[in-house]
Amino acid sequence: MTVLDGSIVTVALPAIQHDLGFSPGGLSWVVNAYLIAFGSLLLLAGRLGDLLGRRSLFLAGIAVFTGASLLAGAAGEPALLVAARSLQGVGAALSSAVSLGILVTLFPERSERAGAIAVFSFTGAAGASLGQVLGGVLTDAISWHWIFLINLPIGAAILLAARHVLPADRGLGLAAGADLPGALLVTGGLVSGIYGVVRVESVGWTAPSTLAWGAVGLALLAGFVVRQATAATPLMPLRVLRSRRVAGANLVQLLLVAALFSFQVMLALYLQQVLDHSALATGLAMLPAAVTIGAVSLGVSARLNARFGERRVLLAGLTLLVLMLALLSRVPADADYATQVLPLLPLAAGFGLALPALTTLGMSEAREDDAGLVSGIFNTTQQVGMAIGVAVLTTLAATRTEEGLAAGLPRAEALTEGYRLAFGVGAGLLVVALLVALSVLPRRTGRARSAR
Predict the structure, then answer these.
(1) What is residue 266's DSSP assignment?
(2) Separation CA 249–CA 355 (nearest Å)
(3) Using CA atoms, how far apart are residues 391 and 379, in angstroms rounded to an integer?
(4) Were both Cys, which of 238, 272, 283, 353 would link to 317 (CB 3.0–4.6 Å)?
(5) Is 243 helix (H, G, I), strand (E, B) or coil?
């Protein structure tokens, strides 16, 4: 549900703008308000789960998210919708930050955990693509309001099931390390940094406000690192990031998510604005990718990780994704979907291979007392990567499109030039991710050796 809401709005944005009268600049905040709240609170929420109990925080997050979905679905003016989206981000952070921590403590055995992580990764890898399909169907068949209202029965079912399925945990207690100064520093730093990044599309990279927000964010995050090195009970013990597997997996994930924004969102925009697909047709056109990702992450990823090790599976997945985006960077303005776009979508299987491997690596050093924190770190890099992808790729595509229009290109060709640049830059980010994985991640983990 929380992953879907990061992408379900993308195909509904034109309808939302028409009904509520958003300005072009204001419309981006339907997405940005969610990203900022979600990304900036994950680390704090993960630690609070360790201290107060992960089950309790998960239930609180789902309740907040579901209530915010009702407000978003009932919104009749831009300000209310943006506020509701921000509140959705808060609920998503509370529930998502502890989800992996719950999973790794529920499944301590390696074989069971591998299967559980495959299912978990499926919700992340396929969820974004399924969100676009569902968003198109609901927007065309009923109205955009239902992309939010559909969360109400789902949220109620989650709350009911979780009370019976998830075991109660007491948590360590706030006395074990709340670290309020550290929490304020990291939350303020992430809010400032993400806010500065998501505003790049409208004001540019060198605007004084962009530089100011970036400087404030970096200063606060630097203060957070100093605080963690000296605090008696740090919010994030720095030992967590000393592991090559954990640090490398988080860096690769940041690059991967930033790059895949070009696929999940830019391809949807290309289908609508260049090939003139409706919201419903766009969602259905993305369905083969979602099905492929789901089949790979659920069907074969756990077995491949056990047989070959997470590093090799990750490298194979990244290679497929580089190839897909490199080929998409050559699509023409008059492409035929069936012959020039559809054949590339099975390469999205790389996401179904890469994400379970990354998740296993990212949680590999989690202990019982800090599983929520490690989960929060892993989810934070995912949201920060998404924010960077939004800012960098959208800005580059828009700039290239404006240059094409100024040079006299037809609108469809100018838009295609922008999208092709975004696909190419996304491929470049994945090449960097490949290099990081090759140089930083160990060649074989202990678990992979034992599997052989």
Answers:
(1) I
(2) 10
(3) 19
(4) 353
(5) coil
Nearest to 434 by CA among 300, 301, 323, 295: 323
SS3 at position 445? coil
- Is the alpha carbon torsion for 206, 212, 217, 218 positive or negative? positive
CB atoms within 10 A of CB 58: 25
Query: Sign of dihedral through CA atoms 241, 243, 248, 250?
Result: negative
The pLDDT > 90 percentage for the chain reads 25
Residue 5 near residue 92 (C-beta atoms within 8 A): yes
Q: What pLDDT was estimated at residue 132?
A: 65
Distance CA 423, CA 414 (A): 15
Question: What confidence tier does 125 reach under pLDDT thresholds 50, 70, 90?
Answer: low
Q: What is the DSSP letter of 269?
A: H
Stronger pLDDT, 342 or 8, i.e. the higher one? 342
Contact partners, residue 2, CB within 8 Å, separation at least 6 = 38, 65, 91, 92, 95, 96
**Short-list 187, 169, 192, CA closest to 43:** 187
**CATH 3.30.1330.60 at 4-167+235-451, yes or no:** no
**CB–CB of 317/347 below 8 Å?**
no
Cα(187)–Cα(204) distance, integer angstroms: 24
H/E element holding 355?
helix 349-362
Q: What is the number of other CB atoms lying within 10 angstroms of the CB of residue 153?
A: 10
At 237, give phi and psi (nearest 5°).
-55, 125
Map tokens 């609508």 to a residue. 272
Task: Give the residue-averaged pLDDT of 109-133.
Answer: 73
pTM (predicted TM-score): 0.76
Backbone Cα Rg of the chain: 21
Residue 119: partners with Cβ closer than 8 Å, 6 or more residues away: 298
φ and ψ of 352, to 5 deg: -65, -25
- Name the residue ranges covered by the structural domains of the chain: 4-167+235-451
Q: Which of 209, 198, 317, 176 is nearest to 260 (CA)?
A: 317
Q: How far apart are CA 335 and CA 437, in angstroms?
A: 34
Render 334-346 in DSSP notation, one character per residue.
T--IIIIIGGGGG
CB neighbour class for 358 (10 Å; exposed up to 12, middle 13-18, buried from 19): buried
Q: What is the pLDDT of the chain when averaged over all its residues?
A: 82
Q: Tens of pLDDT along 269-328?
A: 888 889 988 777 877 888 888 788 878 877 787 788 888 888 899 999 999 999 999 999
Residue scoring higher pLDDT (24 or 351): 351
To 5 degrees, how large is the angle CA 143–CA 144–CA 149?
95
Give Cβ neighbours of residue 59 (< 8 Å, ≥ 6 apart): 159, 162, 163
